[in-house]
Input
Amino acid sequence: MIYTVGGIKGGSGKTTIATNLAVYLVHQGRDVILIDADDQESATDFTSFRHQTLSGELGYTAVKVTGRELNANVARLATKCDDIVIDTGGRDTVSQRSALTISHVYLVPFAPRSLDIWTLRKVENLITEVMPFNPNLVCLTFINKADARGNYKEETADLLRESTAVKFIDNPIGNRISFANAAASGLGVIEIKPVDEKAVAEVTDLYNGIQNAMKISTKKKKSTT
Ligand SMILES: Nc1ncnc2c1ncn2[C@@H]1O[C@H](COP(=O)(O)OP(=O)(O)OP(=O)(O)O)[C@@H](O)[C@H]1O
Ligand SMILES: [Mg+2]
Output
């Protein structure tokens, strides 16, 4: 499975989600390649911290690939592993578009803030342009950095739910210090001690939500063919 984590808003949590997903898959016994497709190289930094923390036992293969030919590189890498997770930058880049032509799933985190939600239309337009090249791409939105208080999370969820271009999955990730702390050591939140049970449950639920959405989409495709 090829997962691309993207969107066109900086700081929505793409790298946090991509690295936590990669680590989660590793703990499922999957052979994973984490691709850094962002010139900022945050996923690469994460891997460097991980290298130090785990004395080189990364658990996944880290690769930096950017540019128009990213899809060709990913196609070759996909024959050598179970899953690929691609972390893209916070803009509409050639790398992100190239990644979307070869991915199975497009994951777009949204922080429940107005400036973030305003980028939904742009994400929808991007998807509309990419779909002809990859009609089977499953595009999913979800909330990241949800605050425990306030109703902005619900308002954001309602706006995301309305989209016909992207499917909203109701598996929010909370705004939790453990995500930042884990990342500073190059770890996924499922790996840190003391265990943040809520964060672990959220990552598990998000993973299951993605798998369910994939199953539903495959069933739909079968019934229409
Ligand atoms: N669920 C979360 N809880 C707490 N902090 C978070 C969460 N998600 C992301 N962050 C923090 O928010 C900041 C931005 O996150 P991240 O780097 O993952 O975003 P990004 O979308 O990859 O940014 P960029 O667009 O620059 O690539 C980081 O400091 C990260 O630790
Ligand atoms: Mg990033």
